[in-house]
Structure prediction request, 342 residues.
Amino acid sequence: MFLRNSWYVAALSSEIGAQLRPLRILGENIVFYRTGGGEPVALQDACPHRRLPLSKGRLLNNRIECGYHGLQFDHSGQCVAAPTQSRIPPSARVRSYPVVDRWGLVWIWMGDAALSDDQLIIDVLNYDNPDWKITAGDALTCACNYQYLTDNLLDPSHVAWVHRTSFASPGTEDTPVEISDTDNGVIVRRWIYDRKLPSFYAPLVRFKGNCDRLQHYEAQFPCTAINKSIFVPSGKGGPGFQSDESSYVMVSYHFMTPIDADNTRYHWLQHRNTDPDNEKVTAMIASSARSAFLEDREVLEAVHTGMANATARPINLGLDAAALRFRRKLERMISRESGNSP
Ligand code: FES
Ligand SMILES: [Fe+2]
Prediction:
């Protein structure tokens, strides 16, 4: 069901502090906190004594004290104090997970800790470029399987119906797409020529009149998606496109973290190449993105329920090609990882 040897976004960095924060990820209960030195920590959220969640205890000098009989655990998960006993039981420890703070997000490695490598965390291009601005990020909990979210983020056609008043513009419903494979996922892209700007982007771009629009929808295993939108004055877009001062570029990063098979924590960031110091623009993008992703959530939660209750095999359409390709490859990776396939 899940690829374990991978980094997942656990939370926005601002959500992990000096309080115990329980989160469920890939069906595992995990408690997060930050040490006095600012390092994020993630431990199995169950005391090895009577399995009281450690998140029901308290933080004492960078250790978690269990709220039942006071066993204390350090950041490595080792029990370092047992006040009711003269000696600490040798097996008194909980699992600790590799965690990294990067791009304003806290990442957790859910598989074999020996394989964790922070170089595998996605790169955010232009992060330090002063001409670009990134939003602080936001998140939603969705009552659906994470793969409905990745399906949706490999399907640019849905904007014509789900986002009529934001991302939609003429041409989004029927312009053909190109699909390609990458080493770590799938890309769907298309240029749409000489159309009206969608209402979400019209106040943000640096030109008036019709646009050429690139929709680049990319998903990386297991469940990260990157949507790059480029808007240029009509006539300037196309396969040989060269960026110039009139180009508007918005890159949306989407990080799906399965809570379990039926629920997903969905995090995102938006990164743009205009108005880096304009807080109003940043706030407008953040709130418009949230409104649009609430539209996705409403559809995808209903899709999850509809598919779970389906009594006949659902049909597939041409627009599903990239999502199905991504699902098949991910399924093979999960099978290989769990030792169920050669
Ligand atoms: S349950 Fe944690 S110390 Fe007893
Ligand atoms: Fe959407």
In short: The pocket of fe (ii) ion (ligand 2) is lined by residues 152, 158-159, 162-163, 296 (CB under 6 Å). Residues 279-308 form the longest helix (30 residues).
